[in-house]
Design brief:
The chain is mainly alpha-helical and about 500 residues long. The chain is built from 21 helices and two strands. The chain has helices at about 1-10, 15-30, 35-45, 55-80, 90-100, 105-135, 140-155, 165-175, 205-220, 240-245, 250-265, 270-285, 295-320, 325-335, 345-350, 350-380, 385-405, 410-425, 435-455, 460-465, 465-495; strands at about 180, 190.
Length: about 500
């Protein structure tokens, strides 16, 4: 505790706090603008840290990290476009709440549970990081394969009726994820002679296209009327009651645990945690049919999980020197620049810096909450802008964000292609959430499955006999059977017409 207080004291200088506020503001802006993401903000600001001392450098980058993850909430709720892949599930209920005149409540709920997710993941990181890192080491290719399949089995919780359309959507997402270089051999697949497809579809332009451009196309109406949403800007506190908070305690704890654990596992990421926690929340809910219409539970599950991944992702980075995602990979580079090497000996050799990083994460989480809380009423006023002004601005930002990911014009075309695909699928009643799930998890599942089969010389038995992977496969089968039985019971209980 004394070390944490000492680390906290080292941050309490006007210069460092100013840097952290600037980092949070930039992170929120980059996270809220579709396509830019907090990862890009950190990458752009990384050269600025070369001349800083290690405390100031990490305080700035951590502020950017937390602000970027939290910023995706704003666009997800207000314009039904996830600012980052980890905010996809927030759109499912956050945007309907905004359309129902509850934008303030949705933002308040998201802001509070983002803070809770952050602090929960950080607390886990501080107290049991070495233990969890050792547990994560037990995850090999067999366990990752089983976990990915388990996550894919949650597609039933993200679809409406009929479930066949949801399964088709998931298959489409998995096929799109197969485009580009094969994960093991590296040969090109499904490129049709187009050089831009050799690297596959970048996730950011694809996700922005599916949600942003699809949403913008859906808003185009031939009536010629300028539409302005009727929004109530009078918010009391965070917009939700104590009773609502108490009712969400199981959901928020479960989602925080999911987010932290997914964050610990390298390569899985906040988007998976986001969708997985939402799917489980829907399955455990007493009113699953209301999900997608603007219920509190969906926003709570989504925002708690995606922010809890922050603390989780830092655990393998600090204890093992293994980056879990793109952001922690950049942070690993920052350690190297400052002559530091994360790993098993890092805790014993750099106690002061370790606890300064812990304190910076706590301070950044609280400052992000305060900035979002006091800026909430300003955010809501975005909905009062006429759509003939708002939508062109959003389109331009989407194109800029998509281009800026890899500085490729081809990614702008990916945005358009996925936007038209999303619009057509939505028009014919095919849900988009399973497309995202398949697109993200399909390549991950294929990679680990093929590696596992290489190790086992083509045998599937090790996937079943190893305890962790076997447990996840049993859960996968159980979830599928539960969905099938539930669907059949609903069908036969339907009153005869």
């Amino acid at each position: 505790m004394q070390l944490f207080i000492s680390g906290l004291a080292s941050l309490m200088t006007p210069v460092i706090l100013a840097y952290m506020l600037i980092g949070i503001a930039l992170g929120l802006v980059f996270g809220a603008i579709p396509g830019l993401t907090g990862t890009m903000a950190i990458a752009l600001c990384l050269p600025l840290t070369f001349g800083m001392d290690s405390t100031t450098a990490f305080a700035l980058l951590i502020a950017l990290y937390i602000g970027g993850i939290s910023g995706g909430l704003v666009s997800a709720v207000l314009i039904n476009i996830p600012g980052s892949p980890s905010s996809v599930a927030t759109t499912f209920d956050g945007a309907p709440m905004a359309r129902n005149g509850q934008a303030g409540k949705a933002l308040g709920v998201g802001t509070f549970y983002s803070l809770f997710g952050n602090l929960f993941g950080i607390a886990i990181m501080i107290f049991i990081a070495p233990f969890l890192a050792k547990a994560a080491l037990k995850f090999g290719v067999y366990e990752y394969t089983a976990l990915s399949l388990f996550a894919l089995s949650l597609v039933s919780g993200l679809t409406g009726k009929p479930i066949t359309k949801g399964l088709i959507s998931c298959a489409v997402g998995m096929l799109l994820g197969c485009v580009g270089a094969a994960p093991i051999e590296g040969y090109a697949r499904f490129t049709f002679g187009i050089s831009g497809l050799e690297a596959g579809f970048a996730s950011v332009p694809a996700l922005v296209g599916l949600y942003a451009l699809k949403e913008l196309l859906a808003e185009v109406k031939p009536s010629g009327k300028v539409e302005v949403m009727d929004v109530d800007t009078h918010i009391h506190g965070l917009g939700f009651s104590l009773r609502e908070f108490v009712s969400q305690v199981p959901n928020m704890l479960r989602s925080a645990l999911i987010g932290t654990w997914i964050g610990i596992l390298p390569g899985i990421g906040g988007a998976t945690a986001n969708l997985m926690s939402y799917g489980i929340a829907k399955k455990r809910s007493k009113y699953p049919e209301k999900f997608g219409t603007g219920v509190l539970d969906g926003v709570v599950a989504s925002e708690t999980a995606n922010n809890a991944t922050i603390g989780g992702a830092m655990i393998p980075l600090l204890t093992l020197g293994i980056p879990g995602d793109a952001v922690t990979a950049i942070l690993l580079g920052t350690f190297t620049v400052h002559g530091l090497q994360p790993g098993p000996l890092f805790f014993s050799q750099n106690y002061g810096l370790i606890y300064t990083i812990f304190a910076a994460m706590v301070v950044a989480s609280i400052l992000t909450f305060l900035v979002q809380f006091f800026g909430m009423r300003g955010f809501i006023k975005v909905l009062k802008l006429p759509k003939n002004i708002l939508l062109p601005v959003v389109i331009v930002l989407c194109v800029i964000g998509s281009f800026g990911v890899n500085n490729r014009l081809f990614d702008a075309w990916v945005l358009v292609i996925f936007g038209l695909t999303g619009f057509l699928m939505s028009h014919f009643g095919y849900p988009l959430a399973p497309v995202i799930l398949g697109f993200i998890l399909g390549p991950i599942t294929e990679t680990y499955l093929r590696r596992g089969l290489q190790l086992s010389k083509g045998r599937f038995l090790p996937f079943l006999t190893r305890p962790i992977s076997g447990a996840f496969l049993v859960l996968t089968v159980a979830f599928i059977l539960f969905s099938v039985v539930k669907g059949l019971r609903t069908k036969f209980k339907r009153p005869a017409e």
